[in-house]
Structures are given as C-alpha cells and as structure tokens.
Amino acid sequence: MGNQLARTVGRYEILEELGRGGMATVYLARQTDLNRLVALKELSAFRQADPAFTQRFLRESRLAGSLSHPNIVTVHDYFEDDGVPYIAMEYVERGSLRPYIGHMSLTQVAGVLEGILSALEAAERREIVHRDLKPENVMVTSDGRVKLTDFGIAKATGSAQTGSFLTATGTTVGTPNYMAPEQAMGQEVGPWTDLYSVGVMAFEFFVGRVPFRDTEEPMAVLMRQVSDPIPAARSLNPEIDQSVSDWIERMLVKDPDERTGSADEAWDEFEEIVISMVGPRWRRSARLLEPSDRPPDTPAGPATPPPTQAARTPLMPTRRMRDSNPALAETVMPEAATRRLEPDDGPERPRRRMSTAMKAGVLVVALLFALAAGLSGRGADSGRSNGGEVIAPTSTVTSPDLALRVPHGWSRLKRPPDLGLPLSHGTAVAPQGRNGPVVVFGVARGRRASNSALLPAAFLGATGQSTGAAPRRSAVRLPEQNLEAWRYPGLRPIGNARQLTVFTVPTSGGVATVACALPPAAAAGFAAQCDAIAGTLQLRRGRAYPIGPSDAYASSLNGTVGELQQTTKSGEETLLGSQTLAGQAAAAQTIASAYEGAATQLAALDLSPADREANARLVKALRAAGRVYRRAASAATAGDPDAYRAASAAVPGAKQEVNSALAGVRAAGYQPANQGSAPSEAAPRTPNSSEPKSDAGVGDSRSDDPSDDEEEN
After folding, report:
1. What is the model's pTM?
2. What is the mean pLDDT of the chain?
3. Is position 611 annotated as part of the catalytic site?
4. Which of 327, 446, 609, 645 is deepest in the core (most CB within 10 A)?
5. Is residue 527 exposed (0-12), middle (13-18) or buried (19+ Cβ within 10 Å)?
C-alpha cells in the first residue's frame, strides 16, 4: 500500500492510508523537514465542493490547535495543497480505543476515564464542547494512555468562538449511540453534553454494549436517547459494584441540570470509588496493554475488577433496610447530649527542638507531640488531655467545600491515605508525613453516607456494623460555625492499621467529614488535639442540618402519611363495595392518586442526608403502589376483568413494600404509631433531639456508650 500511495503534499510524504470516513481520509505521513511521523487528514473529494465542510475542516484545526494537553492529540499544521485542505496531527501509534473494549480491567477503565475527563476539563476551560465523543475518537498511545481526537464537530462558545461556523438551530450532529438528549433535540449544548457521552462509554466498558444497541435506525436511537430510561448498569451486570453503577447513572441523567456538573467533579468521584475498591496505587496497572501483551485468559467482556478487589468490601453495596434492629435504640441522639469542642486559651510555651532520640522513635506518643511542638513555632497550649499537649490550630487549609485549621507547621499531603471514606475533594494534613497522625477532611456526596449514621455503608460494614445501626458516638458542636456533628471515637475498620476518630456533619451538599487517623498506641494521646482541629471546621458551600431525628420531617411524614391513610382506607372500602367495573375503576384511580400525591410531597422535601435514603425508599414504594392501582383502574376502565384481577393480585406486595419502607423510616429515627396493611403515622423518637444545648461543655458530653469517656481517659 505504501508504494501505491507514495506522494508528497506540501512538506509531507504520504506513506499509507490509516482510515477513511465520510468527511476525510487519514494517512500516515512523514514530515520531511523535521523527519517525524504525523497523521495527515485530507478532506474528502466529495466534501471539498461544499464550502460548509471546508469551513468545518478549518475550524477543527483551529479548535484542536488551541488545546494543548497531554490527553488531546496535538495539531501541528493546517495547509492546502492544490486546493485540497489538510490537517497534520500527532501520530498516535496504537489507533482507537474500540479494540480494547471488553478487555479492560477496572484500573485500566479508570486510566481511560481519567485521560478523557482530564482532556474534557481542559476543553471546558477553553469553552469547547467536543460533541462527538465515542471510542473511535479516543486514541491509545504507545505507553497505554489515551488522547482525544477529531474535533470536527466541536462547538466553541463564549470567548473561544472561532470563525463564523454555527450549527443551524435544530440541526443534530454527532453519533446517535453516544449522543446526549439535548444534542439529539438540537438544543443548547455544553460540557454536560460531553459528560453524557462519557457516561455512555462507561456503560459500554462495564456492561459490554451501548444502552440502545437493539435499535438500528439512527433516528430511533436519538428518540430513545431523549425519552427512554437507561437501565442501571448493575441490573445488566451484577458483578458491577453499586457505587460504579450509581456513578454511571448520574452521568446519564436526561436533564442536563441534574447531570454530574463537570469533568473535574466526575473524575473526583470516580477516583474515590477506585481507591476504595483497589487501593491508592491503582495507577500501577492502569495503562492499556498491547493485544500481544495481554494474558491468554483475558476475558472478552465487560470490565471486571482485578483480583485484589475480591478481598475488599465493596464501596457501596445495595442497602437493605431491616424491619427491626435492637441496636437502633442506642443510635438516637440523647437529650442535651452535646459536647462543645472549644479549647480554652492557655499560656504560650517556649519553642522546643526535636531530639535525636525522638527521631529514633523511642516513644511513639512522645515523638508525635514533641514533633508537633517543634514544628509549630510558639504554639498556644490549651491544656493537657491524656498526657498529650494540645497545640492551638492556627493555619487554615481549604478544599472547594470545607476549611479547617491545623497547628502551624503541619503540611498538606499530596494524596490522602485510604481510610475507607470516599470523600470528594478529600484533603489530608499531617505534622510529619503519612506514618504519623493524619487528619483527612472532605464531603461524602450523594448516597454514600445518606443514612442515620452519616457514614458510608461499606465503612460501617468494615467496622462490623450494619447499615441500620451506628457505632457508639457522641453528639457534639464544632464551635467555629456552631455545627452539630456526630463524633465516633476509636473506630478500627477491618484492613486498616490506623485507629480513627470521625466527625460527621449533615449538609445540603452531603456529609462533611473530618477523620483523625494514627497508630492505635498513640490514639488516646491525640484525642484532645483531634477535637481541637475538628472544632475549627467551616463549610464553604451549602448549609448544615441538625443531627438526630428532625421535627420538621416528622411533621411532614405525619401529615402526608396520615392523609394517605385516610384516603386509601375510604377508597378501599369503596373499591370492595363496588359491584361494577366502572365503580372499581374510579375507586382505584382515587387510591392511585393518593399514593402518587404522597410520593410527590415527600420527594419534594429538603432533607438532611441522615433522612434521604429512608425517604427515597418510601417515595419509591409509594410510587410503585400508585402504579399498581393505576394499572387496575386502567384494566377496569377497559372492561378487562382478567387484567383487573392480575393487577389486583399485585396490591398486597405493593403494600408490603410500603410497610417495609416505613420500617426503614423507623430505622432512621422515626417511630410509626401503628403498622398494618395501610400507611401509618410516624413521629420522631426524641422530639427535642435536634436542639442540643449550646452551652454544653466537654465535661458534659453524653455518649451512646457509657464506656466512651472511660476508654479515652
């Protein structure tokens, strides 16, 4: 082929054809003056006569050429030879990602997604939307990394707008199987549009196919992208971890306003999932192997976790509410059980130097606090606790969501240690590196910690707790912003060599979390220092909720569920007494509307993360019950007694799901007054528990476990 194609255009010698499409042909060429290989893209002869395609071709070179990033194919040159336009680009040896799909491990998928999302973040900064993301436009480099290419239909907005090319209103361009709904409808596109395409690719990586593979007609695929729900990845491949499936689902939300907001946020969330599943060194096995380098037994199918995952607890297993749990009574916040973490000012202490003996590690506790004092300059001593000196936190460390103060001389770690806590924008600080005390803070977003414990389900499991219970804890106030928090002392997750003290604060953006981690031998001596640091926590985004059962939520439950109970009781009496299908249809419609209305009211509530999971399950059960009665009503209206009987047979199961969901509400701290086949009222177990005393001191704290203070002292 090389001899047949050998010709020179401009300063490029064409060697062979690499690929051909409807718009262009790509050749392997040598740039003669620099003696380097390039990919030379030639606008097809069929398109050269169309000024719009020529303009789009030029625009591609300008847009791609404006992006300089390790994960974007570099554009070297644009020129015309004998009236034919060409783009000279970086030559990426191993071609597109397509042949690798079905042969990637979890860590390799993570490496691919990291490269794609990093490139999209760079494009977003330049206000460029790719609009045609798919495996064919992701190239694999010789060292197993990926780069984006083909910005032929990319859209520049704002200050990045180049040329005069604009897609006509209502015109759809892109690849249907990977196209976002708003792009399919010719509506406004943005970075969120590319994230939908990434979600489709991730779905394909893990499931083994695109969502609508069974539909062949492109227009039909576009219509399904707009209107048809995409099933959860885990429902098609049970081997997928729930947290991965949830991440994909957030990327594939139809409404752009509800979709994951940015490439940076998407990667931050996915990286935390991978770290929790396979550890912080996942990049060691992230590069894509040449086909010849793959082990002979590499599976040809969806992405599967590497063997190391089997020994780990999944990040977010499916949560199953329990009807009863004897430990629940211990998880409710006691009245006035608040502890104010606010150290008193004390006299200054002279600066001390760290001795050689301390460096040798003779006594761990002495080493930790002598080092902290030596690094802190002239620190303020707020008293002693458990034999350890408390250094006043004075240096502020920030993340996009939170701020925290630490003693002077502490430094931010490049990467937080793996504590089993999946925190967005997790930030770690320490006085002497990873082997000493470390304080990690960040936000657990979404469903990760949406339970009454405000701790991730997998983390609870690693501590030996079920998702319906919580380890022993105390209610405290963090004085910097007067935040209510749960304080969990002495946590020892399985597989973690450190002992943790964890503070959790429910907020509108998720669960703000501070974790102090260090070797068990030094934990008691560090407790007061940990409290002093956690007490400085500040929210930079969102608002905080009280901890414990909420009177406002209880009131909403009582009103909504009580009204539903009355309506359904009356409707069922009418339904049972009706002798005609028309009468039964009307009664079933009334009951269906009651269930659906209750679901709508509860779904609209602004809730603390502690109540969101239980409320979401109740909303889902109510909607399902509404659908069952709606089907019965439709069958009765159609005069189909067989269909009516079939729908009626599903009613007991739907009611049981509602009752099971109400049991989950009870597990979250609300006690149903009575429970039967009809919905029942709920009330908070501790009516005033969301109003802790603001003047409670450290000595006044009360715990879920009477041995709490004894152990720490």
Report:
1. 0.44
2. 75
3. no
4. 609
5. buried
